[in-house]
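Late entry, evening session. Most of the bench is empty. Finally got around to the prediction I had been postponing all week. Sequence below, unchanged from the version circulated by S.P.
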Amino acid sequence: MDGSDTQAGGGQAAPVTEQGARVRGRRTLRWLLGEIHLWAGLVLFLPLVLLGLSGSYLVYHDEIDGLLSGLPAVGASAGESRPVAEIIAAAAARAPQDFTASMVSMPEAAGDPAVVRLGPPGASFRDPKVLQVTVDPVTLKVLGAGGSTRSALTGFMHDLHGHALLSGGTGRQIIGWLGVVMVFLGISGLVIWWPRAGGLWAALTVKRGARGFRLHRDLHGAVGFWALGLFLVVSITGVYIAFPQVLAAGVGMALGEEPTPRARVRVKAPDGGMPMALGEMAALARQAVPDAALAMVAMPFRPGQAARVRFHVPDAAAGAPMISVMIDPWRGKVLSVQDPRRLQTTDWITAWQRPLHEGGGLGAAWRFLVFLSGLLPLLFAITGISMWWLKRRARVAALNRRAS
């Protein structure tokens, strides 16, 4: 119909201009996004809120575990740390004779203690018999010994946030898709919120004295705009962690690079063979990374895994990607070295996803912002559901008035 429509009553409608059609199309898209945004939020608000709150908890879980344990904070002497083998020997003197060291964490800063995990042969990572010994790395004095300081609450939050309390890979995929929903809600929310010409400042603030629907709308929109960048960074990095190979391939394609395949290192223990001691593995890894400070040495957590040695990248902030050396502890062989300083751009981006998501690598301010980002789904759920309920109640009241 050449630019016009016929009304149902037979009269001629006003001509539809090209600009009018574009405006109507934009309104239709905005309405559709609004409906999807609304119902996605209503249906999934509980898992999204739990995902956010558990993420906020995990940002400071070490500090929370310290408070829950009731144990006094321990400090170590200032000075140069003793060799790893000596620190492990000091810890082993406080453990039963058949216990062996499975992991040692070196101090992150001057005055911090070293922590050694010891357990009976074949003990799993979460075995309640595992002993955790805190050692002054300078004087080799044992500062404390007991079970793991990780609380049951922290374990629950890890399981909830990491894999939705489900075993296997299904839970990780569910978490990843919830992250996709969060990304969609953030971007669609911006489109829905975008104000008309001249109304930008009003849309960026909460009106003084606002109450009811207006207060919830202002909070939902203004906080959503100012926090959108943070919200998207934390959400996208979470999706990246859940689907690393897919997103790394996409980033590599955009940058014209081929992502380095993730090393699927499988190690088989020979019959009757004895693995290297943690101190020996640290010395072996040091040959491959002579210029960095040792952070951690750990035996394999599961059969088939390689041992791992990590080093701090010189001058990097706490929580930044570390240098990781994979070792076959039975054959005394370095299997791979992943050094963030020598990664191509695609692999470097991949290495930074977890630190950005967890609040590490960019200082205390970024860590606190990531903590706050986990509270955003709760705020959006409260304000969004309140707007929907208030609007629905007003609509029902209007219909009742018309009917009476």
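Two things to note before I forget:
The chain has three domains: 19-59+154-257+372-403, 74-148, 261-342.
The beta strands are 100-105, 114-119, 131-135, 142-146, 293-298, 307-312, 323-328, 333-338.
Will write this up properly tomorrow.
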